Amino acid sequence: MLLSAASELTLGMGEVLEERVERVLGLHLLKFTEVLKESCLSILPHLLCEYLNDLIEKFDRYHTFYGSCVSEGRYFIGIKHKFWQVGIAAEPKTRLLLYEAIAIVMKKCFHLLGINSESSSFEVSIAKSLLAQSSSKRPMDVNAPVADLESDNKKQKRVVGAGTSVDNVITRLPSPIARDPPRNPRFEPFSILLNITKDSEFTKGKLLGNISVADTFGLLSDQWVQSYEPDCCHVSLFNHEWFDSIDINNYDSLYFGNTSSRHSVAFSSAMEICIKLFVTTENKDALYQLCDHQSDMDFSKFWEKDTDSTCGALMATGLDGHIMMHYILLKDAVDAVLELTCTSLADNLKVYGVIYAYYGGNFDYQCDDEFLKNSYMSLLYQDDPDSVLSGAKIPLRKSVIAVPNKGGSLVIKAKLTDESGNVILSKYCEFPSQTQGSRGDDLDGLGCSFRLQVIWSQGRGCSKGGSYLL
């Protein structure tokens, strides 16, 4: 009766899903087409089973939230649900429309999986075997839940209609658990090499625009920040407007700062990237389109390889130039949060120079060219003497870096000078990766000293927002 009433309703202007649980349920319904696309492209039907299980759990929480339940419950697809005792007239329109949408999506899932209430035991066993096999072969969903399959002689029963007992064709999946060993795949961007080709006399200018990425299918959730909304949105790697454009030189490499998500970027089998960059002259009297690019980067082949990491480069073009973006993919990573504090500083000393970070532990950069290797570094500090104050933390250009988990390490290399160019500090230190805890080291120079702290984590991001700076 509820569904028949809902089919005659439409959502009018100004009528929205007001409650959080309603929005979560509605947004999950909108993900159906994405899950279906991924399931078809990857030939992994168990993704629909996982999606259907999540839908049922969210539907269950939706009922619990309102709490208007009858004392007697029913079993619905292996999960106990309680239904409202109030009449149809008392049901809000949005709630009725949600019922109808849920019923349509569930019916479509059952149809695509070849499951119905009249399925034979043979068909049920095939569906269960297909679910188990596809789950074990999936290369990109590294934290996929494992099906809780039952033996044939312990099949659940449910009551349908007037006491007719049939085999329960849906096996409930448990909450997602990490496989052994757990994986924490990360996409770590490092730098872009830019080139204005339209104007041969162009040497210096200002850069503005946006670079953002997103896990295409949203398979890996962000477990570091509690959120009730989908967390597979775009993450900004670079975001500068006309008024805060940054100085650049043609043919130079620019290094990425912190991301807008405050931690490294997760990825699965594909990642969508959007790049829109423009360059002006120093006086802003001419504008060039450096890059206008949007595509899906396919990483499925990376999961088929035995290696745990790979270096990548993406070339993207515009009307007046092109860029080369350098990044590294890590199958299992930890986040290193860096803090640099100036513990002492001589009077009137101005600190210039650079501090870089890169992977140690014999990391395979897959090239011997030192210039190319420099494209896979992170620039932490460069010629900013006003930010160096005694007893204060130095704001780093990049303070969160994904590092290989097993056998990985992070190398910090500092070369600082005074205002005259004389070297006052030259230090190299290496920090082996770990899943939690912190390590520190002292950087002592002529007239200055610093304390570098590396905080390791797989469960939380940076405590402060990123700057998007290059």
From TrEMBL:
TM segment ranges: none
GO biological process: arginyl-tRNA aminoacylation
Pfam families on file: DALR_1 (PF05746), DUF6598 (PF20241)
Record's keyword terms, sorted: Ligase
EC id: 6.1.1.19
Record has Ligase as a keyword: yes
Keyword Protease among UniProt keywords: no
SUPFAM superfamilies: Anticodon-binding domain of a subclass of class I aminoacyl-tRNA synthetases
Domain annotation DALR anticodon binding: ranges: 1-117
Molecular function terms, GO-annotated: arginine-tRNA ligase activity; ATP binding
Top-level enzyme category: ligase
Catalyzed chemical reaction(s): tRNA(Arg) + L-arginine + ATP = L-arginyl-tRNA(Arg) + AMP + diphosphate
Name of the protein described by the UniProt record: arginine--tRNA ligase
Organism: Artemisia annua (Sweet wormwood)
Organism phylogeny: Eukaryota, Viridiplantae, Streptophyta, Embryophyta, Tracheophyta
